[in-house]
Design brief:
CATH class of the largest domain: Alpha Beta
Number of strands: 23
Largest sheet: 7 strands, mixed
Number of helices: 14
Mean pLDDT: 92
CATH topology of the largest domain: Nucleotidyltransferase, domain 5
Distance between the termini: 51 Å
Radius of gyration: 22 Å
CATH architecture of the largest domain: 2-Layer Sandwich
Strand content: 15-25%
Number of domains: 2
Strand order of the largest sheet: 17-18-16-15-21-22-23
Length: about 500
């Protein structure tokens, strides 16, 4: 029997089938993939169409109609959220994507009111537009239909996983990894916090029940069969599990739209008051077991920065980015800070904006793109170094995602970190982790090996890292000096 993993990400929805097929290790098969629109109705606003994504999920299930699926696992974007009618199931808002910054003014007001210390103590998360809490509060404050449905007892608020499960299985629940990313869950208690809900203006009665990552999520229809959904998890936590990270200090980096580093911290909640910009979060919780926690840090624009550069006409094909030679853009004096949606960990500065610094007339498109790659690597290196100050990280450090397939980028990252890396030869680590969690809960055996090429670091001058740090500080100062357009 096989397990169907549905990877519902920021830009696409993909269905992959994992099954042993009588061999020694599990085989993987991509059976469906569909991209969805990225909607930008105003500066700083990022939306998805919930009907479009739900349709893609149904397409994924339909693609498995003739396949021996024993269980289904679904991973989700994490912080993206929406509102819908409990009676009709129809959404009353778009999906407000994790990148959406429309709540910046509200976040700043809460910060001025002194709310950050209380919020961080309970959740481990800073006040930031990245998380769901302020977005859900924005829905309540700005959509009359949300208030009308709340008065009638028909409002449902939640992250995308809760919407998908409600519509596909009839279960209005969210798993604890996703709930830990909202800014509304008490991390140690694993439940919605009334004080936080009041702070953001979110009615707790409209939120889904928090449940473990594995267990009974109801069933979905695949043809004429009802197949159990046995796992629901945030995509980054799924990738952590897919890399085989199980013990304290096991870590991974995934390069997708953004870049995210997670490290397993154990079964004790990490301190929430740490000032290093890392986020304590739930890595997973299996039914009947205590939660396993992780420390998380992210860069909002990784592949998104490359796609932006491609859109500017700086390069035509990702395959052309494989070899820039040994000399770096940094050594030429050119630095790129990929703060195209602000700076996340460890800075948490939404005012910062991306920039090339050190431009000269003799610099061409190739060097500009090289600087973009270096900037993404150096930003995630900041995150990994912060993780290393909290936990003894084990090497080789596994990496995955589209950018990890670029040999030049992977070598530069190893150099910047001064660490041995393992580039996974499995391109679907998120789906793999989702499938493993679903399989374990369903009692389906999947033998998935780990492999990949190892990259040893070369010497990297501290002066170059200092140059990048100075550039990061420069874009932060620009943001603080009023460099942003009005309305953000």
């Amino acid at each position: 029997m096989s397990v169907l993993a549905i990877d519902q990400g920021t830009t696409s929805t993909r269905a992959l089938l994992f099954g042993n097929n009588g061999g020694e290790s599990a085989a993987r098969q991509l059976i469906h993939a569909a991209k969805h629109r990225q909607i930008h109705p105003a500066p700083g606003h990022v939306e998805h169409d919930p009907f479009e994504i739900l349709g893609h999920l149904r397409e994924c299930l339909a693609a498995a109609v003739d396949l021996p699926v024993a269980a289904v696992g679904i991973d989700n974007q994490g912080e993206s959220c929406l509102a819908w009618d409990a009676e009709s199931g129809l959404p009353i808002s778009p999906v407000l994507v994790w990148q959406d910054a429309r709540t910046e003014a509200r976040i700043e007001q809460l910060r001025r009111d002194g709310a950050e210390a209380m919020a961080r103590a309970k959740t481990g998360l800073p006040l930031d537009t990245y998380f769901s809490a302020a977005k859900l509060g924005w829905i309540m404050a700005n959509l009359p239909e949300a208030r009308r449905l709340h008065d009638k007892g028909r409002l449902r608020l939640g992250t995308t996983d809760a919407f998908f499960l409600d519509r596909l299985t009839g279960r209005f629940v969210t798993d604890i990894t996703t709930a830990s990313r909202t800014g509304l869950m008490d991390l140690a208690a694993g439940r919605w916090d009334d004080e936080l809900c009041r702070l953001y203006g979110v009615p707790p009665g409209a939120l889904p029940e928090i449940v473990p990552t594995t267990g009974d999520f109801g069933t979905v229809s695949i043809g004429r069969r009802e197949v159990p959904v046995t796992a629901s998890v945030v995509d980054q936590q799924a990738a952590l599990y897919g890399h085989g990270c199980r013990g304290r200090g096991d870590a991974k980096i995934t390069f997708g739209t953004g870049a995210f580093a997670l490290a397993v911290a154990g079964t004790t909640p990490p301190p929430t008051e740490a000032a290093d910009g890392l986020l304590p979060t739930v890595a997973w919780q299996k039914t009947g077991e205590p939660a396993t926690y992780a420390l998380d840090g992210g860069v909002h624009t990784a592949a998104a920065a490359l796609d932006w550069a491609k859109g500017l006409g700086l390069f035509a094909d990702h395959a052309a980015l494989g070899d820039f030679g040994r000399e770096t853009a940094l050594e030429r004096g050119l630095v790129f800070v990929p703060a195209l949606a602000g700076l996340a960990s460890p800075h948490w500065d939404k005012q910062a904006r991306g920039a090339w610094l050190g431009l000269e007339l003799g610099m061409g498109r190739e060097l500009l793109v090289q600087a973009v790659l270096e900037g993404v690597a150096l930003r995630i290196a900041e995150v990994v170094e912060a993780l290393g100050r909290r936990l003894p990280l084990r090497e080789p450090l596994p990496i995955d995602g589209g950018m990890s397939a670029n040999p030049w980028f992977a070598q530069f990252l190893a150099d910047a970190l001064g660490a041995t890396l393992r580039v996974s030869d499995e391109p679907e680590l998120t789906a793999r982790g989702t499938a493993e969690l679903a399989a374990e809960a369903a009692g389906v055996g999947l033998e998935l090996g780990t492999g990949g090429r190892t990259i040893e670091p070369r010497a990297c001058s501290p002066a170059l890292r200092a140059r990048f740090a100075a550039a990061v500080e420069a874009v932060r100062q620009y943001g603080r000096a009023g460099g942003l357009p009005s309305g953000l």
